Amino acid sequence: MAFSDKFQYHDYYLVEELLTDEHRLIRESVRAWVKKELTPIIEDYAQRAEFPSHLIPGLAGIGAFGPYIPQEYGGAGLDQIAYGIIMQELERGDSGIRSTASVQSSLVMYPIFAFGSEEQKQKYLPRLARGEIMGCFGLTEPNHGSDPGSMESSLRRHGQGYLLNGAKMWISNAPFADIAVVWAKDEEGTIRGVIVERGMEGFSTPETHKKWSLRASATGELVFDNVFIPEENVLPGVKGLKGPLSCLNSARYGIAWGAIGAALDCYDTALRYSLERHQFGRPIASFQLQQKKLAEMITEITKAQLLVWRLGILKNENRATPAQISMAKRNNVHMALTVAREARQILGGMGIIGEYSIMRHMMNLESVITYEGTHDIHLLITGMDITGLSAFK
Ligand code: TGC
Ligand code: FAD
C-alpha cells in the first residue's frame, strides 16, 4: 500500500525555542529517518503482524539505542531531553518501533550500565548500541503483572552460578532478542537481575500471537527450565525490587515523550482531513463540533509537551522523582489515546482504514496505557506520593 506521509509538526507554545541547537538537529534527523524509512512501510508490517527487523541498523544509526549511555560504552552520551525527542519522533511513526528502542535503551542497556560489572558493560553495551545484538527485559510473569514483587521466577545456587526457573510473559522483543535482562528471586527471596543469552540450554522464547495492538512489535514469553546462569552473568550492582523499578523510571520517561508523537500524528492527520473533506457544502473543519475536538486536542498536546520538557530538565539534573515520571506517563498516554479516538471520529469511515495511521496508533496506545505500569497503577503512585498512604495492598 502506498502511504503518503504529509506530517507537519505542531508546536503551539513554541516549546522548540526552549531546546538547544543540538536537540533541534537530533529531531530533524530522526524525523527525516522516520519519514523515509518507517512511515512508508509500517502499515503493511502492522497489518501482517510482523516486526520490520531490517530497520534495526537504521535505528542504531540514528542513535536510538542508548542515546544517554556514555560514549565510552558505545552510546551517544546525549542528555535526557535528546532521548525524549528521539522517542517522540519514533512514536510519531509507530509505538511498536519506539518500544523496540526504549526496551533496548532503558530496559537492557540502562540496567547493564547502572548495575553491571565493568566486564558486562564492555561485553554488551557497545554491541547493543550498534544494534549487533538486541535485548529484552523480563519482569512480568503469568501470575504477577502490576505486583512484580510477588514474582515466582527463582535462582538456586548451582556450582559457579545459579539455576534459573520460571516464566515471563508479555515480553517485547523476546522472539528475536539475543539477550534478556531477567529478574528473579534467589534463595533468600531477594530479587536479582541476570543476563540470559539465547542459546543457553533450557531457555526458550515462544512468540505471542493474535495481538490487535502493537502488531509491528514482536512480543513473546521467556521460559526458563533449569537454565544455568554463570556468576559473571549476574548484575552485581543492585538487589531488590528497586532494580527493575529504576529501569522502569527511565522507560516510562521515554514513553511520556513518545506518546506525544502518536498524538501529534493523529491530530495532524485529522486537521488536514477536516480542512479537505467537505459535507453540506463546507469543509467539516468549519463546524463547531469538529473545531471543539481539534481545539481540545492541540490544548492537551501542548500541555503534555510542556510537562515532558520540564520533566526532562529535572531528569537532566537528577531531580525527577519516580512519582513525577508516573504522572507524566499516565497523563500523556491517556491524552494520546483520547486524541487518537477523537481524531478517528473526525475521519468518519476513513478513520478505520490503514491508509491513515490513526487506527493503528489508537490500537497501539491500548498497550502503551497498560505496559510499564497501568493507568490505574500510576494514579495510585501519585496517590501514595501525595498522601503518604499506599493503596496497593
Ligand atoms: P514498594 O514496596 O513500593 O517498593 C519496593 C522497593 O522499590 C523501590 N521503588 C522504586 N525504586 C526505583 N524506582 C521506582 N519507581 C520505585 N518504586 C518503588 C521502593 O523504594 C522499595 O525500595 P526498598 O529499598 O525499600 O526495598 O513496592 P510494591 O511491591 O508496593 O509495588 C509498587 C508498585 C506497584 C508501584 C510497582 O511494583 C509498580 O510500578 N508496578 C507496575 C509494574 C510495571 O510497571 N511493570 C512493567 C513491566 S516492564 C514493561 O511493561 C515493559 S513494556 C516495554 C515496551 O515495549 O516499551
Ligand atoms: P494486572 O496486574 O493483572 O492488572 C489487571 C487490572 O487490575 C489492571 O487494570 C490494573 O490496573 C488493575 N490492578 C492491579 N492491581 C491493582 C491495585 N492494587 N489497585 C487497583 N487496580 C489494580 N512486561 C515486561 O516485563 N517486559 C516487557 O517487555 C513487556 N512488554 C509488554 C508488551 C505488551 C504489548 C504488553 C501488553 C505488556 C507488556 N509487558 C511487559 C507487561 C506489562 O507491563 C503488564 O501487562 C502490566 O504491568 C500489567 O500487568 P498485567 O497485564 O498482569 O495486569
Q: Helices, strands, pairings?
A:
Layout: H1 21-48, H2 56-61, H3 80-93, H4 95-115, H5 118-129, E1 135-138, E2 154-158, E3 161-172, E4 179-185, E5 191-197, E6 203-204, E7 219-230, H6 242-276, E8 278-279, E9 282-283, H7 288-316, H8 322-346, H9 358-368, H10 375-387
Parallel strand pairs: 1-4
Antiparallel strand pairs: 2-3, 3-7, 4-5, 6-7, 8-9
Helix pairs in contact: 1-3, 3-4, 3-6, 4-5, 4-6, 6-7, 6-8, 6-9, 7-8, 8-9, 8-10
The chain binds 3-thiaglutaryl-CoA (TGC) and flavin-adenine dinucleotide.
Entry keywords:
Butyryl-CoA Dehydrogenase, subunit A, domain 2; binds flavin-adenine dinucleotide; binds 3-thiaglutaryl-CoA; 393 residues; three-stranded mixed sheet; alpha+beta; 49% helix; four-stranded antiparallel sheet; Butyryl-Coa Dehydrogenase, subunit A, domain 1; 3 domains; Butyryl-CoA Dehydrogenase, subunit A, domain 3
Task: Give a quick rundown of the structure.
The chain has 393 residues and is an alpha+beta fold. Helix content is 49%, strand content 13%.
The biggest beta sheet is recorded as:
4 strands, antiparallel
Low-pLDDT residue spans: none
Main structural class? alpha+beta
Bulk shape? globular
What is the strand content?
5-15%
Strand order of the largest sheet: 2-3-7-6
CATH class annotation of the largest domain: Mainly Alpha
Q: Which architecture name of the largest domain does CATH use? A: Up-down Bundle
Radius of gyration: 21 Å
